[in-house]
Amino acid sequence: MKKSNLNLDALKPVFEKIAGLTRIQRILICVATVVLIAAAFGFFLYKPKIEDMAALNEDITSAEQKLATTKRNAAEYDEYREKMDDAKARFEIISQELPATEEIPSLLTSISQAGSASGLRFLLFQPQSESRKDFYAEIPVRMELSGSYHELGNFFDRLARLSRIVNIDNCSTRRQNEALDISCTAVTYRFIGEQASDN
């Protein structure tokens, strides 16, 4: 009891001071008190919720950006797949023109037969060491032949019509009586693909 009396006695001068104020001043004090209580209530109760809402809005924005990126990637997927299929098809065509290891002897035989069928006489037919590139190897064949210009042209035409790629390098000719001495290198190619990474 003494404690409550002390509290009321301490507040008595405050109440007397408020009682001495005009009616408008008392109303303003009440309104200010209510506003302060509402502000404190709002600060402590709603501020965390507002912060949570801001965090959720950021999450929503981030999710929307990811969704937009995913949709864009999905739209481009068909285009990438089509390009990949085209690249595979081109690769298949090229790899068919580059024989595998087991086909090299028959290809060399085809080159030799093309020369003989053209009327050229082989003085030398010497396969050299292969030279590896990215996904293929070059196989040079040193040749020395004897024949006419017409037979040489016929030979080059036959090589061009082979199903495999054969290039002629370092070709030189020298007139020897009524024939030509021909020196050249036929370069053919072998597909090595994934085998290259194994070595």
What is the CA-atom radius of gyration, in angstroms? 47 Å
Helix content: 55-70%
Please give the domain count. Answer: 2
CATH topology of the largest domain: Alpha-Beta Plaits
Nutshell version of this structure?
The protein is α+β, with helices and mostly antiparallel strands. 62% of the residues lie in helices and 23% in strands.
Q: Can you offer a commentary on this structure?
A:
The chain is of the alpha+beta class and 199 residues long. It folds into 2 domains: 26-97; 101-198, Alpha-Beta Plaits, CATH 3.30.70. Helix content is 62%, strand content 23%. The chain is built from 5 helices and 5 strands, in the order αααβββαββα. It has helices at 2-19, 23-97, 104-117, 149-160, 195-198; strands at 121-127, 131-132, 136-147, 166-176, 179-191. Strands 1, 2, 3, 4 and 5 form a 5-stranded antiparallel β-sheet that branches. A hairpin with a 2-residue loop joins β4 (166-176) and β5 (179-191). α3 packs antiparallel against α4 (149-160). The N and C termini lie far apart (100 Å). Residues 195-199 have low confidence and may be disordered.
Structural topology:
Blueprint: H1 2-19, H2 23-97, H3 104-117, E1 121-127, E2 131-132, E3 136-147, H4 149-160, E4 166-176, E5 179-191, H5 195-198
Antiparallel strand pairs: 1-3, 2-3, 3-5, 4-5
